[in-house]
Specification:
The protein is built from 14 helices and nine strands. It is α/β, with parallel strands linked by helices. It has a five-stranded parallel β-sheet. Helix 3 packs across helix 14 and helix 7 crosses helix 14.
């Protein structure tokens, strides 16, 4: 009994050979993946391996964040991301405070800066924030000493979702070099797509995006300048040909502007990921979706629940990835 108890109390350890070849963790904040080197992404993934080992134990908790305060601050609704972060922090023994804009002084007119000052006074060490305005987490870092984790800002970025997607892909494919990844859907309004483009291309994958031209972001050509392996392919059958990884995006009805699509029916006809279309990809291709899924709109129910879907694995891996990030932000790699 004593031996088991000691094991459960140990902090997770990253393999020494990984730390020997990886620069010391330099990130005080996690705002996007555009400033992550491949070695830093690999460090996150290797640390996630250690966290998955923690989650496989009878007691899924380690004391590495004991005495630290993690605050989740969400200005938009969330189920997966918020619960994943809170569970991750609790698994690391942190004190967790959960705030939502609808139940805070924001409804009385309190500004973001004032809210952040309150969190500082509460002793926040790490703040996990989702905000409807792109760039809000960057502004927040100017007004706080705590570490900031971007849990999604407007149409801009969702770095932790991209990291859990990368981890899920690596579990199935072993690596990224030479992989063909296809992202299908509402690229224009998708912070998930943008962060995945940065992450996948940085790790050596070839990325294609597929959607109507009206749902392409105006700045995608800038991304292509930095990452020449990003291709635009408006025909879904052509895009899927030979794909190793297929990621469908939620058609974000709440972010749509009038005139971008003739109709939902037309989108389904031309861009829904069906079993017949998925057959164009490699036989061992995997299908991802950041959730929540609009069933039988961007992806058919048969594909979402089919043998090539790893959607539920993404949710499970999200806890381990976020544990790894909180651990690294708290100085775990030093």
């Amino acid at each position: 009994m004593r031996e088991v108890k000691q094991k459960d109390e140990l902090a997770p350890e990253v393999r020494p050979e990984i730390l020997a070849t990886t620069p010391v963790w330099q990130h005080r904040h996690i705002l996007d993946l555009d400033d992550f080197a491949p070695a830093e992404i690999e460090l996150v993934l290797e640390t996630t391996d250690a966290m998955k080992e923690v989650l496989s134990r009878p007691i899924k908790k380690v004391p590495v964040l004991r005495g630290k305060t993690v605050i989740t601050l969400f200005y938009e609704p969330s189920t997966r991301t918020r619960s994943s972060f809170e569970l991750a922090a609790k698994n690391l023994s942190a004190d967790v405070i959960s705030l939502s804009a609808q139940a805070s002084s924001t409804v009385k007119g309190e500004s973001l800066v004032d809210t952040l000052a309150t969190l500082e006074a509460l002793g926040a060490d790490i703040v996990v924030m989702r905000h409807s305005y792109s760039g809000a987490p960057y502004i927040a870092t100017r007004h706080m000493r705590a570490s900031m984790v971007n849990a999604g800002d407007g149409w801009h970025a969702h770095p932790t979702q991209a990291l859990l997607d990368l981890y899920t892909i690596r579990e199935h494919k072993g690596g990224f070099k030479g992989l063909k990844a296809v992202i299908i859907g509402d690229i224009k309004h998708s912070r998930v797509a943008r962060s995945n483009i940065w992450g996948l291309t940085a790790m050596g994958a070839e990325v294609s995006v597929c959607c109507p031209f009206t749902l392409l972001p105006a700045g995608l050509d800038v991304v292509q300048h930095h990452f020449p392996k990003v291709h635009i392919e408006p025909e879904i059958e052509s895009a899927l040909c030979g794909a190793d990884v297929v990621m469908t995006l939620r058609l974000q009805l709440e972010r749509q502007q009038s005139g971008l699509l003739p109709s939902i029916r037309e989108y389904v006809k031309l861009y829904q990921l069906t079993e017949a279309r998925l057959a164009k990809a490699k036989a061992d291709a995997i299908v991802l979706h950041p959730g929540p899924v609009n069933e039988d709109i961007e992806i058919s129910l048969a594909v979402a629940q089919g043998p090539q879907s790893v959607i539920n694995e993404q949710i499970t891996n999200g806890v381990a990835v976020r544990m790894a990030l909180l651990y690294l932000l708290a100085g775990g790699s030093r």
